[in-house]
Amino acid sequence: IIGIIMKFLLTLMAVLAISQISLAVRYNVTCFYDTFSIQRGGNANFTLVDLKKSFKYCNNVIYGYVGFNADTFDIKTLHPLQKSQFEQVKKLKTEYRHIKFLLSLGGDKDLDKPDKYIKLLEASDIKQEKFIKSAKKFLKKYKFDGLDLSYQFSRNKTKSKSVVKSLLKTGKIIAKAVINKKPTNLLGKTKSSKKSHTLNKHQFTVLVNKLKNSLKHERLLLSLTVLPHVNVTESLNIPSIMNDLDFVILSTIDYSTPYLTPKEADFLSPIPKPRNQSHNSYIEKDVNYWLTQNFPRKKLYIAVAAYGRTWRMDKALKSSEMPIHSSLNGPANGGEWTHIPGLLSRPEICMKLPKMTRKQNKNYGSYAYRAADVKDRSGMFLTYDDEENVAVKDDYVFQKTLAGIALFDLSLDDLHGKCNKGLFPILKATRLYDY
Hints:
alpha/beta; 15 strands
């Protein structure tokens, strides 16, 4: 009898263990770490100690960002402290064996000669091979597990006149293109012809294939992060690249920002299409497009933002229903900690909300606003996702059986518990089905 009882207990323990494992791997969480955050001072400074505290929630950690030399095609760091940050990866890999550490290229941080990303696609086999060898050497030097391509493609052209006005401030190239009445993209380049897009799409497929063939011999991963507002149909041949990519992250955030539409605001990251939406971008549409291209569900991530986007509000709103078409005037001033115009980190949001009027839709997102006051302080309009919005995205990923969620960015979550919800509340909210 004792033997039967022991056998039953062992079987029960095995079943429970398997169920716990099954629970833990329902989907993964990929955490982006902006290495530039180390340069912030005060409460916004993000240290190695802070980074380690997030690791129990992350399956993959992606270090952003490096660039490459436009002349030599060699991988290069983008700020002086990156080398010491990358050196830490060697030790972290031994301490946190459950995590894959990847290095991300581009991410709109590589600002020197941005057209070099197209030139790399058009480069000779010799130059591309030099880029690939440099990338592999860099990964091996710092013991990264793989390379993430946050590739700086051309962006979708928007119909908003306010965008053209804001782009005119970014450089003479854009101004010249507008004067000549040539359509431009958000990088300031004259819009390419359909023929060149088709060629670049093929060239990117070839580059990805070359990278994968080189990296796989070292058992290194290759992923792609599709940055916001990239025209996927013009830039990517999804069926041709899907077998060469270990996973893809769709940046399903920043659908509306004060830089894209200074005079108009909409939800930051809606799942279904919001009513009366003008820009026709939302998570369901992006995900379904990839799935209709037969891209594997278990390789596809959606993104969640730890931050919010802010517009300056000079007078009272005519209507508080989304989308907002009145009273907005470009990016609001940066927060007290991060000092980034048009953006607030999670703790900065928590500090602002008590004095703002708040609204929430669990499927679309949250927003808040504060009118200008008698002290001549400008008002603010804020769009963001709270923990409940993130939980709905968890459920969406689970129901769609996708690979998981990617958080942008660890350094912008609440790393000091200022929101009274513990450390990293947005990151923890991505783990709804693990608890």
